[in-house]
Amino acid sequence: MCGIVGAVAKGNIVPTLLEGLRRLEYRGYDSAGIALNNGALHRLRTTGRVAELSKLADDQKFSGEAGIAHTRWATHGAPSERNAHPHISGEVAVVHNGIIENHEALRQRLQNEGFTFTSDTDTEVIAHLITINLKETPDLFEAVCRSVAELQGAYAIAVMEEARPERIVVCRNGAPLLLGLGEYGTYAASDASALLQVTRRMVYLEEGDVAEIHRDGYRIVNCLPGGVAREVARTVQESELTNEAVEMGPYAHFMQKEIFEQPGVVANTLEMVLNAHSISPRLFGNEAENIFKDTRSILILACGTSYHAGLVARYWLETVTGLPCNVEIASEYRYRNPAIAPHTLVVGISQSGETADTLAALSYAKSLGHRHSLGICNVAESALVRQTDLRFLTRAGPEIGVASTKAFTTQLAALMLLTMTLAKLNGRSSDKSEREMITAMRHLPVALQHALQVEPQVKAWAERFSEKKHALFLGRGMHYPIALEGALKLKEISYIHAEAYAAGELKHGPLALVDKDMPVVAIAPNDALLEKLKSNLQEVRARGGELYVFADADSRIQESEGVHVIRLAEHAGLLSPILHTIPLQLLAYHVALQKGTDVDKPRNLAKSVTVE
Ligand code: GLU
């Protein structure tokens, strides 16, 4: 789930590996390690930051032309030095992202065969398996192929063998991995950003690919379980990522940068529409028109923040298109027996396009007989994009902060485009309503800029939140998912326990929690539900609860004792949830700053959740 970097090159590769790990730090990790192969394996590991690993490497004058490095996000075994990667068995060193599900059975077997384990990880079984297979075949590539055939789960690995320092073998199966082709060597990494310092020429591996890299080249064999191993050619792609996109610039945190990038990236995501007078289904792919015309219902599968985007979209889709829409948490859907509605468009949403549960839920939906799928994703080369019939790429640029911000608002922009496209093809929108929505979308970047201007007021509120242990978020209608997202942001980065409720649910339970120590954040746009919401807020006030209300300029709601109000612009209609997201992101950010937490790398969390 975290980071892999490998290199075989002319000259010392240690700075490349460490810089690669530094660029992957944003994904969240708890320990780091590096191994070099100079004809003998040398390893360094630490539970500290990558900077500490770099210091250790400096102190020990670590240098070599082939090596693998890793940041670990522990799934099996505590975050400790002995569990940090690389893991070594005999002459073999391995780094691994993901989970080996059958590790217990393998560990038992390997122990019976005399192997001693030095860690509690699932990873170590891979190293020992390769050692066994190397006794049967002298070829590391073949030994890796035989070993991975025994593994169940999702993983990306990189392997070195002491006797053959000129090469590294890597494999992708359910977790991202790519090769980088540089001037002085060949590289491998779990994320392109780790390699931009040495090359932009990338080869994205596909599921089941095993590759061998050496200084002047590489070869790839696809060994999908049950399939016939065959050498494959994968296209070399020029990465469009810029170095600036993965640098912080003048900001204090990536999250702050990403919050403030939203007007620009939402504009980029909508660009094709903003310059047109009408919306074309081709935005979603060449087949989209036929598939959308055949669509009778929609099923959205996603996790975390992307799931919240799906919940907003349900309001839009059902209101505007009249098509029934179901939104499911991917990790739940994949393990239940859902009833199948024919002619359903299955929509998977994932920032990275590598979210294991979302990918598995989509495959499961397909196996149940759903014929058409659409991926909404921020990464062009991801598994989600390859797996779906139709796709829409949000243009948020790399999102480095673990807590998602700009990915969410660009997903919402994409989902609004989907709503309008389906409405048009189903005869549910007129030319006039289409033009009006395009005009509203044109205004959206400016409206987002305006929403960001409430930052000083939000900052003042944040000071009062930092002492609190709990917070309640309330919203109604299409702003209820925004309340869910606001609560998620606050808990993710400030560690304050936050819960969101549909405001009408308050008296069915959560009202019991309300007292003067429980701040209640309410999203109060000037929509048809405002009067109902005001009654809910009265219920809070009557119990001594302190209210923090994000209203529209035209919401009829007044400041009074215990009722604090920050106003955005006038009500933005269907686009309002996108705007109301901004102050909630700012609130979470400033509360976290007050509390001094690690905003970009919150404890226990990781970016792009490629494990189940
Ligand atoms: N499951 C492995 C471990 O716990 C790898 C975790 C990762 O992806 O970083 O060590």
From TrEMBL:
GO biological process, one term: carbohydrate metabolic process
Subunit structure of this chain's protein: Homodimer.
NCBIfam families tied to this protein: glmS, PRK00331.1
Protein name (Swiss-Prot/TrEMBL): Glutamine--fructose-6-phosphate aminotransferase [isomerizing]
CDD domains reported in the protein's UniProt record: GFAT, SIS_GlmS_GlmD_1, SIS_GlmS_GlmD_2
Record's keyword terms, sorted: Aminotransferase, Cytoplasm, Glutamine amidotransferase, Repeat, Transferase
GO molecular function annotation: carbohydrate derivative binding; glutamine-fructose-6-phosphate transaminase (isomerizing) activity
Species annotation: Nitrosovibrio tenuis
Domain Glutamine amidotransferase type-2: 2-216
Reactions catalysed, as given in the entry: D-fructose 6-phosphate + L-glutamine = D-glucosamine 6-phosphate + L-glutamate
Gene3D superfamilies: Glucose-6-phosphate isomerase like protein, domain 1, Glutamine Phosphoribosylpyrophosphate, subunit 1, domain 1
Domain SIS: 288-428, 461-602
EC numbers for this chain: 2.6.1.16
InterPro entries named in the record: GATase_2_dom, GFAT, GFAT_N, GlmS/AgaS_SIS, GlmS/FrlB_SIS, Ntn_hydrolases_N, SIS_dom, SIS_dom_sf
Role of this protein: Catalyzes the first step in hexosamine metabolism, converting fructose-6P into glucosamine-6P using glutamine as a nitrogen source.
GO CC terms: cytosol
Active site annotation, chain numbering: 2, 607
Subcellular location, principal: cytoplasm
Domain of life: Bacteria
Location in the cell: Cytoplasm
Short name of any one Pfam family annotated for the protein: GATase_6
Keyword Transferase: yes
